[in-house]
Design brief:
Helices cover 31% and strands 25% of the residues. By secondary structure, it is of the alpha/beta class. It starts with 5 loop residues before the first strand and ends with a helix.
């Protein structure tokens, strides 16, 4: 049974696809997320682009299309609506995801100078991309080969941005923006999928069964599980919280090494176990799952958080701004809805004096996509914003490499 017209907002994440249905007043009718089916072709975007270059572009597009159709179907079922009820649709993603969705040649974003041959916003018709929709799909404009429409959408969602504001979309790519002296500077760092539970032994996206938070209570780790049932894995915010708790409890040292259980003076030592892969932290075990955090999982998280920390420092440096001068920090993405400032501080994700300024924006990219759909002049405003963003390549620069090494420890 149909209940009126709705708008479809999509976030094309490297690891997680997310979507919302909104009514004409912007009220949310449905929300869903699922693992991007393209992960079978590589957990990071570079691997997928290399596969596309080698001739797998059509397969990657088909996987993404299937995932989006499954997501749209799930949203429509939740809202009790039909495809014909969708009166407008828009999506945002990083440059790699947008190129793979459109099945474009990837050379221009894969190789220096990393300048996309197509940066403007586009409307994809059903002939260009069949998602079963009766309306074209608007795709947010790209900024450069490494800063995409997802960051544009996240920034578009903001109102009244104060001077010296910092924005971070923490996902498989850490895309960040700094507004200072009336100018926007933007960049991105390759964080890897650890923030979204990818490349982690028992990792999963943030859905029912995922451990999303952990704290030390006396000599036990108290787990918070999405949906309230038994744990089935760990999502990104859960992994950060586990590591913060393990640091507080002396289970891992400042270099990120899981310690000898005999070196732990409390009963928390029972969480450290020996496995065929080496030492690990066992959070939970039953007949179905053994939720373990291996040493390599800790390292993968360290690589991700060091990339974000180093990128933040380098972006501030380019603007000639001290971290203490940042007035406001807005964080979205993998942690955009469930992560405490204490955890952020403990795992040293950001320069220490920025953490107290952090506010979380749940699903910041989807918020921006939805806002555009509700504004007749949205596409025009998004294009103007994208044109005002100055991209700064940081990865591979000596300053970034030095900051990255310095940011590895906790």
């Amino acid at each position: 049974m149909s209940h009126g017209r709705c708008l479809l907002a999509l976030d094309l994440g490297t690891t997680t696809l997310a979507g919302r249905l909104l009514d004409a007043d912007g009220r949310m009718r449905a929300q869903a997320r699922l693992l991007n089916p393209q992960v079978v072709m590589g957990t990071d975007i570079m691997r997928r682009l290399e596969k596309a270059l080698a001739g797998d572009g059509c397969r990657l597009q088909a996987l993404l299309r299937d995932g989006l159709m499954e997501l749209i179907g799930s949203l429509l079922r939740q809202a009790g609506l039909q495809t014909a009820d969708i009166a407008g649709a828009a999506a945002a993603g990083n440059p790699g995801m947008v190129y793979l969705l459109r099945c474009l040649p990837v050379d221009s974003i894969l190789f220096p100078p990393h300048r996309p041959s197509c940066r403007e916003a586009v409307y994809l018709s059903g002939e260009q991309l069949d998602l079963g929709l009766s309306v074209p799909l608007y795709l947010f404009p790209l900024v450069s080969g490494y800063v995409g429409g997802d960051l544009v959408a996240f920034l578009y969602a903001q109102t009244d941005v104060p001077e010296n504001s910092f924005f971070l979309d923490a996902g498989t790519n850490g895309e960040m923006a700094l507004y200072a002296s009336g100018h926007w500077r933007v960049t991105s760092v390759a964080a890897g999928p650890a923030f979204e539970g990818g490349d982690i032994s028992c990792g999963m996206i943030a859905q029912t069964g995922a451990i999303s938070d952990v704290c030390v209570v006396e000599d036990a780790l108290r787990l918070t599980v999405i949906g309230g049932g038994v744990p089935r894995g760990v999502c990104g915010s859960g992994l950060a919280a586990i590591l913060a708790a393990a640091l507080d409890g002396g289970l891992i040292d400042g270099h990120g090494t899981i310690v000898d259980p005999l070196a732990v003076p409390t009963n928390l030592s029972r969480y450290i176990v020996e496995t065929p892969r080496g030492r690990a932290l066992r959070l939970y075990r039953d007949a179905v799952v053994d939720v373990l955090i291996a040493q390599q999982d800790v390292r993968n998280f360290q690589l991700a958080k060091a990339a974000v920390h180093a990128g933040t420092e380098c972006l501030l440096q380019r603007a000639g701004l001290e971290s203490s001068a940042v007035e406001q920090v807005t964080l979205t993405g993998a942690f955009g809805f469930s992560m405490s400032r204490q955890v952020l501080k403990r795992v040293a994700m950001l320069p220490v004096n920025m953490v107290d300024k952090v506010r979380f924006a749940e699903a910041g990219v989807l918020a921006g996509v939805g806002k555009l759909l509700l504004d007749a002049r949205g596409p025009e405003h998004a294009q103007r914003l994208a044109a005002a963003l100055q991209p700064l390549p940081l990865s591979g620069t000596p300053a970034f490499e030095k900051a990255f090494i310095n940011a590895m420890d906790f």
